[in-house]
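Hi, can you check this record?
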Amino acid sequence: MIGTGVGASKGDVLAVGRTCEPPAPWSGCFAKAPRRAIGSRSDGLLGLEDLRLMPPSREGLVAMRVDLHTHTTMSDGTLTPRELLERAAAMSIRLLSVTDHDTVRAYSQLVPGASDSLTLVGGVEFSTQWRRVGVHVLGLNVSLDSDALGEGVRHQQALRLERAARIAHRLERLGLGACLDRVRVLAGEGSIGRPHFARHLVAIGAVGTLEQAFGKYLGAGRPANVRLAWASLGEVVGWIRGAGGTAVLAHPAKYRLTRTKLLALLDDFIEAGGQGMEVVSGQQTGAQTRDLASLCIEKRLLASCGSDFHQPGQPWAELGRVTALPSGCRPVWDCW
């Protein structure tokens, strides 16, 4: 499942290699990391200390399938970490990041050395807010055992638990019964999120589909939706960069901002230390891709791409179904 990629020894997982010095805001974003032995845990699983190793050569990253935005059962995905990697290998993905919401627990469940074809990048997706709009920031190529990342994950997980308790209370007041214990079972070891509540509502027959659960109870403005004061952009970017990673604004087109507000968001993100943006996020039109590429180049940001995969059967967000970055964009992995 975890392979080497070009230029790495068997079982390695990608992390920062050489540095580069592009113009600001790219410059000064990256740091070198030492090579470490992999698979150091006695049970053969990956320890956090195993997940910041040298990358494949840049030549090996040309014309390959890349997916740097995916989810597992450790947040709101339906595949386990191992199942995700098996699916990625079967779909000929060469460079992959597991970016679960506010957690990196997926990486502790991965066994190295089963494939030579896939290189794994340490990642996370942090929730934050900008002018009362919820936005997400990817941390790519992070050092998973860093104090900064640990601080961020603990902070966000505490907020998620608080939100879960408040959602459960609201649903109970709506006559739907106590549900927090059941939702914890559905989440398992993963982060509790609204999709787990949606699955519970479907299971008890309160709604017929997950979409109906959000439309009736859990979506913005609905009676069980709870708004939280997530960490600020600056805090989130600080955790990522403190872990030696690259801070990337996730799916900017999905926030449905006006052009003026999107430009303002990008400016504030850059001012906070942000380094990249997703130019390709799942299925989108060619016009959308060209527009985001233009913004990325204009703002001198690194370009990333990912499916935002959560589960099979969603062709608009299928694992690895990511179009190539347009010419003129500098890939985020170019400096790893």
User: Anything to note?
Assistant: The chain is about 30% helix and 15% strand. Strands lie at 65-67, 93-98, 119-130, 133-140, 246-249, 276-281, 302-306.
